[in-house]
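Workshop exercise sheet. Pairs work together: one partner reads the sequence aloud, the other fills in the structure field after running the prediction. Swap roles for the next sheet.
Pair: D.N. / O.F.
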Amino acid sequence: MAKRNRREYLQFLDAAKAAAETAIDSFNSVWHPYRNQTTLLLLTNAWELLGKAVLLQEKESIHKGQKQETISAEVVIYRLQNKKLLDQNQASTIQQIISLRHAACHHILPDTPVEVMQHLLFYSAKFFRELVGRKFPTHLKTMNENYLSMSFSDLTTYADKVQRSVSRIKRNESDKKLIWLLERGVKFDGESYISEAQFNAKYLNKKKILSHLALNQFVKSGEMVRIVPVQAPHNYYADITLRKGSSKDSSLPVLVKKLTLKKITRI
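Structure field:
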């Protein structure tokens, strides 16, 4: 008896999961001179395939035009957002990844702070798993691996690095390009991106540039992530406290307070 072919949308789903895990593996590689670029390429691939798996499962076409080409990753995510399968924050996160991917694939990726990469990777992987659980719940059992990313730098957050890049936008070409790439991802309208020339003309003459960017709302409304390894000797514990910052400050500053811990006395 001939082997039954796996349904097309399940083939897309299998490939999407493989791409997502390979992206994580790429980012955590000990030596990888093309780490950010490879991670962005694979994350975009993962989301495009997952989105197409969802559309195919719902009997929707993933083709466009007369040449039977398939729709792009950014259009796939836009469709998922319109179907209420992704909210604004989730879609904006993924669209930034896709925008950066295009730069990495077709041009030169500007210097991208590790906090920006960690933020996009962490939340895109989280949203990826949530969508799989929502649309393909039986496949969650194959997505229960645990991953560890080590860092020896005193890192801050995505919001902090974006704010710093915006502050240098008029004097640093790399920062200007990075902010344009992130902004065009957030502002994707389902058909086209804002060009670099349009971005420069619209925003560079402003005094408080960040307040005029769609990226500012993303920073204010989205959760931030900071990976903090805590090393403690036997019988010691560590407290991590979150507090609400000023509503006037969108950078979500990270304060590191060091305390001398007392050894626990057991009764």
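Discussion prompt: The radius of gyration is 21 Å. What would you look at next?
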